């Protein structure tokens, strides 16, 4: 299934409605990407004002999710789409939930950043946050780009990137636990940083979920809970 296959309808209005839902989804994704980027920056730069802005903007993401939900319900009621069109609607319907949860994680990071800013001392773990944050931002960007271009190979690349983030997260967590054992005075601050790392790891999970939905959309294959070798076979079929 290719991008142009979603433009072959008798009804021009139906084409327009599908394009509008997809555009709204990508716009929501763009805002979520910015929220995650700003949340990480607010932590690393000790920018309390930016942290507050991220928390306030979370409402916009929730509103966008509700609006897309309403669009989807209207299309299902009026158009009764079948085959590839139905897959698109299902994929977007599931993916906006993941985007909304990414936004929630960005708000959590921003709240932790605000607290750490007020304490005034940069704790151990910021290097890990910078590294994993960079991986996660790339993952979000590539997920949305894959969705924009119906690129299943890039979606598969995103899926594999999630495994790297999980590994980096486990390594960082072990190092921070060791540090807390050596310096109990840092426990409170380091726990806050570990919460940030956990949020970043969850954002990666949600990005992977969206990549899986894109593969379902284009190939009609459910690639959840299967090995990379099985995914590759489905992409080649």
From TrEMBL:
Quick check: keyword Transferase in the entry? no
Q: Which is an annotated Pfam family here?
A: PhoU
Q: Which UniProt keyword terms apply here?
A: Cytoplasm, Phosphate transport, Transport
Free-text function comment from the UniProt entry: Plays a role in the regulation of phosphate uptake.
Q: How does it assemble?
A: Homodimer.
Q: What is the lineage of its organism?
A: Bacteria, Pseudomonadati, Pseudomonadota, Gammaproteobacteria, Moraxellales
What species was this sequence derived from?
A: Paraperlucidibaca wandonensis
Q: Which SUPFAM superfamilies match?
A: PhoU-like
User: Can you say where in the cell this protein is located?
Assistant: Cytoplasm
Q: Which residues form the PhoU domain?
A: 27-112, 131-213
Q: Work out whether the entry's keyword set contains Repeat.
A: no
Which family, according to the similarity comment? Belongs to the PhoU family.
- What gene does the UniProt entry assign to this protein? phoU
Identify this protein by name. Phosphate-specific transport system accessory protein PhoU
Q: Which domain of life is it from?
A: Bacteria
């Amino acid at each position: 299934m290719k991008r142009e296959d979603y433009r072959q309808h008798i009804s021009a209005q139906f084409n327009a409605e599908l394009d509008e839902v997809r555009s709204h989804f990508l716009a929501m994704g763009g805002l979520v990407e910015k929220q995650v980027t700003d949340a990480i920056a607010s932590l690393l730069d000790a920018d309390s004002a930016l942290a507050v802005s991220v928390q306030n903007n979370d409402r916009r993401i929730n509103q966008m999710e509700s609006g897309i939900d309403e669009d989807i319900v209207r299309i299902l009621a009026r158009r009764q789409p079948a085959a590839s069109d139905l897959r698109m609607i299902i994929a977007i319907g599931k993916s906006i939930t993941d985007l909304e949860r990414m936004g929630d994680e960005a708000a959590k990071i921003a709240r932790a950043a605000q607290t750490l800013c007020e304490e005034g001392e940069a704790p151990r773990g910021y290097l890990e946050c910078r590294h994993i944050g960079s991986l996660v931002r790339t993952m979000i960007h590539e997920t949305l780009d894959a969705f924009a271009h119906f690129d299943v190979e890039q979606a598969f690349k995103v899926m594999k990137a999630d495994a790297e983030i999980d590994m980096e997260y486990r390594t960082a967590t072990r190092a921070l636990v060791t540090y807390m054992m050596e310096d109990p005075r840092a426990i409170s601050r380091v726990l806050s940083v570990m919460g940030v790392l956990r949020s970043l790891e969850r954002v990666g999970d949600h990005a992977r979920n969206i990549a899986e939905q894109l593969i379902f959309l284009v190939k009609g294959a459910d690639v959840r809970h299967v090995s990379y070798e099985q995914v590759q076979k489905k992409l080649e079929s």
